[in-house]
Sequence to fold (94 residues):
Amino acid sequence: MSTPISNRYDFVLYFDVENGNPNGDPDAGNMPRMDQETGVGLVTDVCLKRKVRNYIEAACEDKPGYRIYVKNEVPLERCDQEACEYIGITEKKS
Fold:
């Protein structure tokens, strides 16, 4: 079983995109998000979190405890079952 987080860690995620779309806006036909005043592309916090989650999952190669809980086209019931098995909770049948 894993232990709770006892320390806070700050980190910087820096990436550069040229001639690409790192964070499309679904309300604008998936066009890049842009700062109207500077013309610089914007990336939302949600996009950054997803990039970090995807990297951790890829780097840890599906080791227990490092999988992404909510995934596209994967039923939450399956994720719930895997999470319960990982921490040792067994389902009781009534």
